[in-house]
Structure formats: structure tokens, C-alpha cells
Design brief:
- This protein is mostly beta strands.
- It has one domain (2-248, 255-280): Roll (Lipovitellin-phosvitin complex, beta-sheet shell regions), CATH 2.30.230.
- It is 9% helix and 49% strand.
- It has 2 helices and 14 strands, in the order E-E-E-E-H-E-E-H-E-E-E-E-E-E-E-E.
- Strands 1, 2, 3, 4, 5, 6, 7, 8, 9, 10, 11, 12, 13 and 14 form a 14-stranded antiparallel β-sheet that branches.
- Helix 1 packs across helix 2 (100-116).
- It starts with a strand and ends in a 25-residue tail after the last strand.
């Protein structure tokens, strides 16, 4: 079993106007539920603890966010993990009827886990190697294509350090929301991530940041609320690491029993990519450095977290 702490900040701006939401912190326990002959593993991810941390200007949303966080406790998420690090088929397993906002928050948890996952190349590579991954991003219904470049920074035993940069673009398209047509143009985004992964336990310690922007024109009669064009920007900052040590109750900004605030050195410094899970394609263009040991794509998939 691997225990981890996921923290993320989500901000949405419409024509530059928006509000600040608190940081949602989720403690997770990951175990292998089943293993297939080809090395694919079915992971069971249990939400064992949640908390909310204040950000400047987020106080007005604190109580609502804490209620949503409390409703997430005990929920189980399952997903499939391939030998090369591909993650797919994430599902929320619960018999309870979850409010839409709670289910949306859980969807963001699964999306965040997939963003932090490292897609390994199809052949052994060494330190300094780079490879690319191209995938489709259904960002809140907006179709876009993302290309991520991975760099292998170091190898220490079973632990590899990596860094990524990504760019996403989307063609003009028309969506329908609640019977209203929305014309979407100028879709683009940027993302960065860096961290380490212990391949023997599938344990991550890293951070990701991103932005995703689109111009949306709501097609409706003049004078209809919300009609017309606006620019929507979604930003997200993700931090995935081993759980912090519990702090005494009464720490400012932390509910009794919640984990302590992130240390300043751990706090994300920029927004991160938002949106639903990516549909991944096979990695491409792997290059190998002869000056360092190699890491293989199947290394971590056969060992239980």
C-alpha cells in the first residue's frame, strides 16, 4: 500500500474576473486490487482523509468547500495502470448519491492523479533522454490536443526524477450546454511538471502547474443573461507527495484533526492544467543517453504499491 497526499488549487476566470477557492487536500491510500498477465494492474485508491486550507481571499468559500471535502471521505476510486505508466478507466465507486459538486471534485482528483503519472518510453533510456506523448484532452467538453515532452533527470535505485512541459491547442468547435450553443475558439494551454517516482511502490513526489484558455461565444438572443463572447481561463496547481505529519488541533486555517498547511518550499508557485482525464496514445521519439543506467517502461508495473 502507498499513502500519498494530493493538494490542488483551482481557479476559473471569466474575462479576468474570478474568485479564489481554498486549497483542497486529499489523503489517499493506493493498493493493487488485481494484476493481469500482461502486467496491467487494477488500482484501488481510497480517500481516507480530506481537509481545506485557506488561500488569500478564499475565506468566503471555506465552509462550502469543507462540506464538499467531508462528503468525499471513504469514497473509493479504481483505475487501470499499464506497464508503461498509462492510466485509464478511472471510476468512482460509491453506493451513496453524491451531489454534483462533490462528484466534480472527485473527478478532479482522478484527473490530477493522471496528470502526475509519468508515461514511460517504449524502450530503455538513460539520464538526459527525452520523449513525447500526444493525447486528446476533453477539457470540460472542449476538445483539444496536447503534446507533452518528458525529460529523464536522474536515476537513483528504483527512483527516477523527471520534468515535463506541455502545449495544448484546440480547433474551433461548437458545444451544446443545457440546450444552448456555445462557439469555442482560440483554445490553448501550457503546462509544466517535475518530480520523482519510486517505481517499486508507484509513489510520487512532485508538482504540476498549468493554464487552459478558450474564447466562448454563447449563441442566444441579445439581452439573454450570459449571451455573447467571453474569455475563460482555468488554472490549476497540483502537489502530490507523501502525507505530511499531523499537526496539533487549532493550527490557523486548519480544521481540528486536519493535516498542517503546506510548507512554503512545497507550495506550488504557478497555476496548473485543468480538465478531465486525457485519452493517451503511445509515447514517441524516445532517445537514449549512453552515459547513464537505463530505466525500463515495465519496471514498476509488476510490484504492488
Amino acid at each position: 500500500m502507498t499513502t500519498s497526499e494530493l493538494a490542488y488549487d483551482l481557479d476559473v476566470k471569466n474575462d479576468g474576473q474570478g474568485s479564489t477557492m481554498p486549497t483542497l487536500v486529499v489523503e489517499l491510500e493506493t493498493t493493487v486490487d488485481d494484476g493481469l498477465a500482461d502486467g496491467t494492474a487494477k488500482l484501488r485508491i481510497a480517500v481516507v482523509r480530506t481537509s481545506v486550507r485557506d488561500r488569500p481571499g478564499s475565506e468566503s468559500a471555506r465552509d462550502l468547500m469543507r462540506a464538499e471535502a467531508a462528503a468525499m471521505r471513504g469514497v473509493v476510486i479504481t483505475e487501470m495502470l499499464a506497464p508503461d505508466g498509462k492510466v485509464w478507466d478511472a471510476r468512482i465507486q460509491t453506493t451513496a448519491v453524491l451531489p454534483d459538486k462533490v462528484r466534480a471534485a472527485l473527478d478532479r482528483v482522478t484527473q490530477s492523479l493522471e496528470r502526475m503519472a509519468m508515461r514511460l518510453p517504449s524502450e530503455p533510456v538513460g539520464v538526459g533522454a527525452t520523449w513525447r506523448e500526444r493525447k486528446t484532452l476533453p477539457q470540460g467538453g472542449i476538445r483539444a490536443i496536447s503534446e507533452t515532452t518528458y525529460t529523464l533527470v536522474s536515476i537513483t535505485g528504483d527512483t527516477v526524477a523527471y520534468a515535463t512541459t506541455g502545449l495544448s491547442t484546440g480547433a474551433p468547435q461548437t458545444l451544446e450546454q443545457d440546450g444552448t450553443k456555445v462557439e469555442v475558439t482560440n483554445t490553448h494551454g501550457h503546462s509544466e511538471a517535475k518530480g520523482t517516482i519510486d517505481l517499486s511502490r508507484y509513489a510520487f513526489d512532485g508538482a504540476a502547474t498549468s493554464t487552459f484558455t478558450s474564447t466562448m461565444n454563447v449563441v442566444a438572443p441579445e439581452g439573454t443573461p450570459g449571451a455573447g463572447s467571453s474569455t475563460v481561463e482555468v488554472t490549476m496547481a497540483i502537489r502530490l507527495r507523501p502525507p505530511a505529519d499531523p499537526a496539533p488541533d487549532g493550527v490557523p486555517g486548519v480544521a481540528p484533526g486536519d493535516p498542517p498547511p503546506a510548507r512554503p518550499s512545497d507550495a506550488p508557485t504557478a497555476p496548473a492544467r485543468a480538465g478531465p482525464p486525457a485519452t493517451r496514445t503511445a509515447p514517441a521519439d524516445a532517445t537514449r543517453s549512453a552515459a547513464a543506467p537505463a530505466v525500463r517502461s515495465t519496471h514498476g508495473a509488476h510490484k504492488a504499491p
